[in-house]
Design brief:
Elements lengths: L4 E12 L2 E12 L3 E5 L6 H9 L8 E6 L2 E2 L5 H7 L1 E4 L6 E5 H6 L9 H6 L4 H4 L3 E2 L5 H14 L4 E5 L7 H16 L3 E6 L2 H4 L4 E6 L2 E7 H4 L26
Parallel strand pairs: 3-10, 3-11, 6-9, 9-10
Antiparallel strand pairs: 1-2, 1-4, 4-5, 7-8, 11-12
C-alpha cells in the first residue's frame, strides 16, 4: 500500500442540534488505495463524508482536515472540488434539461472523448448522450452517469456514499469495474457502506460507532462486523448483519 497520505482528519468534532455527531475522530487515507468506512446507522459515516466534502453546515466542525498536506477545513465545496475532491452521492441529483453529455463534460478541465467511459459503465453513447439527467433515468442509471463523469474527470479523491443503494447486481459490478479503473489510474476511493460486498472491494477499512473510529485495519479484520461480531462498547446500536437491504 502507498504510504503517501492524501487525506488526514485530525481531532474532528461535530455537533448538530446539540447532538454530538462526530467525536474527536482521526483517520488517514493513502494515495491510490481503496478505503471503506463502515458502521451502524447513526455512526457518523455520512456526516464524516460531508465534512470532508465541505458541505456548509458540516464546516462548523472543529479540528483539521488536510488534503495533500494543506488545511482545507474552511474551504467551500467548490474550492475542494477544484483541488481534486469529489463525491458520488447515495441519491444522485436530477438536472432538468441537462443532457448526459453536458453533465459528464462539465467535470472536464479540457475537452475529451467521453464515449469510452460511458461504454465502460454500460451506457450506450448513442442512446444516452442526449438523454436528460432527470426522472426519465433510473437511480441506477444516474449513478452510472455520475461515476462516468468522475472517471472522465481529474479528481484525486473520490468518496462514494452507499454505492450499492438502489441498484441491481449488474450495475454494482459496473461500479466495481469503475473503482478498479480509478485505482489503476492512481486515484483514491473511499466507500461509505453497509455492504460486505462493497467492503470486500477495499484494501483498508475503518469501523465507526458513536461518531468515533473504534477499529481499523485491513479489510478482513473488519469483515466480522457483518457477522454480528461487533466490538463491545456502550453504544446501543446493533451491528448491521448481511448485505444492504436496498440492493436488488
Amino acid at each position: 500500500m502507498n504510504n503517501n497520505k492524501i487525506l488526514q482528519v485530525k481531532d474532528l468534532h461535530l455537533e448538530l442540534n446539540n447532538t454530538t455527531i462526530i467525536n474527536s475522530l482521526n483517520i488517514e487515507l493513502w494515495e491510490g488505495s481503496i478505503h471503506a468506512i463502515v458502521g451502524p446507522n447513526g455512526a457518523g459515516k455520512s456526516s464524516l463524508a460531508n465534512c470532508i466534502m465541505g458541505l456548509e453546515k458540516y464546516r462548523k466542525a472543529s479540528g483539521e482536515i488536510l488534503f495533500k498536506g494543506k488545511d482545507i477545513t474552511g474551504l467551500s465545496v467548490d474550492e475542494r472540488a477544484r483541488m481534486g475532491i469529489t463525491m458520488a452521492w447515495q441519491e444522485p441529483a436530477r438536472y432538468e434539461g441537462l443532457t448526459v453529455e453536458d453533465f459528464v463534460k462539465a467535470s472536464l478541465k479540457k475537452d475529451r472523448d467521453i464515449k469510452p467511459v460511458l461504454k465502460r459503465m454500460g451506457l450506450d453513447p448513442d442512446y444516452y448522450l442526449k438523454r436528460a439527467v432527470d426522472d426519465t433515468l433510473s437511480g441506477g442509471e444516474r449513478k452510472k452517469v455520475e461515476l462516468a463523469s468522475i472517471m472522465a474527470g481529474d479528481a484525486e479523491l473520490v468518496i462514494m456514499d452507499e454505492p450499492d443503494s438502489g441498484i441491481d447486481i449488474e450495475s454494482l459490478n459496473r461500479i466495481f469495474e469503475a473503482v478498479s479503473y480509478l485505482r489503476e489510474s492512481g486515484r483514491t476511493v473511499v466507500f461509505i457502506t453497509h455492504s460486505s460486498a462493497v467492503l470486500k472491494q477495499a484494501e483498508h477499512a475503518f469501523l465507526m460507532c458513536g461518531g468515533k473510529v473504534v477499529d481499523k485495519g485491513v479489510t478482513k479484520k473488519i469483515i466480522p462486523y457483518f457477522e454480528g461480531k461487533c466490538l463491545p462498547c456502550e453504544c446501543k446500536n446493533e451491528p448491521y448483519i448481511g448485505e444492504a437491504e436496498n440492493v436488488r
